[in-house]
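anyone seen this seq b4? input:
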Amino acid sequence: MESGGTGFVGRALTQLLKNRGHEVTSVSRSPGKNRITWDELSRSGLPPCEGVVNLSGENVLNPLRRWNESFCKDVVASRVETTKALAKAIAEAESPPRAWVLVTGVGVVLGRDGGAIAQMLWPFRLGLGGPIASGHQPFPWIHVADLAGIVTHALEQEGVSGILNGVAPSAVTTINKDFAQAMGSALGRPALLPLPGFAVSTIFGPERSIMLLEGQRVVPKRTLESHYCFAFPDLPSALRDILS
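predicted toks r here
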């Protein structure tokens, strides 16, 4: 069972799990086929299942939302409250699931039908793409297929536990400028126009812009030690798959 199953990552994970012979039920705000609502979860408890995945979470970098008290509350509630609700349901279940995966703090998720690529594609297609500010800040990234793969790996494999960083192996040395050049190369377009730091601060506000202007270097050490094999370990292969 998964929460957040109708989103970008949730769709990829659901398809992968179904392809591997699993049945998937999503927890959603609205009812539907193969879904239960949060109210139903609260009233009736957790249905019998082998694993639970929490993918819920407001997009922190949503450019359509200002960083204010209301948005901060939505960000926290979308992660903390859903986790509390699932933890309570698991604790009270007659037959608790074998595995529980919480997805949070992954790299920039790249995919064909959503994620960061959807927001970046047209500027690059028009030849207006480029690095953010200096372009030297770390750029941790992961293909959506590998993020879904890591979650599935954690659900299926015995003995996998702890924090598995959701970033590609080559993301350790990737900087924002590398991503811009790879994106431009994949599209056959120049990637020379940087997005000034002040513009990023204006769009996202000082609290969020620091994530884009400074970045964070993340190493998938435990992910690799768990014997997960990345389908897209390097940026060129990931972008060729997404943009083909």
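The chain has two domains: 1-104, 107-142+155-244. Residues 69-92 form the longest helix (24 residues). kinda curious what u guys think
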